[in-house]
Design a protein that fits this description.
- It is a single chain.
- The chain is mainly beta.
- Helix content is 0%, strand content 52%.
- The strands form two sheets. Strands 1, 2, 3, 4, 5, 6 and 7 form a seven-stranded antiparallel sheet that branches. Strands 8, 9, 10, 11, 12, 13 and 14 form a seven-stranded antiparallel sheet that branches.
- InterPro entries: DM9_repeat.
- Pfam families: DM9.
């Protein structure tokens, strides 16, 4: 079954088949999206009843106003001890070209999605104004289908090295 991306913003309603990704610590539903930020195409957590969306970047949780919402079927969350399973969903990329995956983890009463950098060996989530990292015991989103529309081409920006927030920061 196919999936698609729909352009949206914190001021818009979500498509009826938007992919549920978790819940915030107050019980608010979180849906999955992606947004351009500092030259990267990053997974974002969308919280409709707060008119908010956030990405994880360079040690912080950053508000984004516009994003694309993931909709469709053919997805499954797989628990991992740190290794990335086959079929992991590529949601975006870093400005250096590294493909980013999406994962989620239970943290401080929430189930929060975030980005997986294979080269860093961890999941980063935006939560409480900070970027938190985890090396194991998180779920990875798996895709069992073919996309309707693939990620957009990377924007023309000067090459800059990735800034690693380091998985040792907690």
């Amino acid at each position: 079954m196919p999936y698609s991306w729909s352009p949206s913003s914190v001021h818009s309603s979500l498509p009826p088949d938007a992919l549920y990704a978790g819940s915030d610590s107050d019980g608010s539903q979180i849906f999955l999206g992606r947004s351009f930020f500092q030259g990267d195409l990053l997974p974002c957590k969308i919280i409709p009843n707060k008119n908010a969306a956030y990405v994880s970047y360079d040690g912080g949780e950053h508000f984004v106003e516009t994003y694309e919402v993931l909709s469709g079927q053919g997805f499954e969350w797989i628990l991992t001890e740190g290794s990335i399973p086959d079929g992991a969903f590529e949601i975006g990329y870093s400005k250096s070209g590294e493909q980013l995956l999406v994962g989620r983890i239970h943290f401080e009463g929430s189930l929060t999605p975030g980005k997986i950098h294979r080269s860093h060996g961890c999941l980063y989530i935006p939560y409480g104004g900070v970027e938190h990292s985890f090396q194991s015991n998180f779920e990875v989103l798996i895709l069992n289908t073919v996309p309707i529309n693939p990620p957009p081409d990377q924007p023309d920006e000067p090459e800059q090295p990735d800034q690693c927030c380091c998985c040792s920061l907690m």
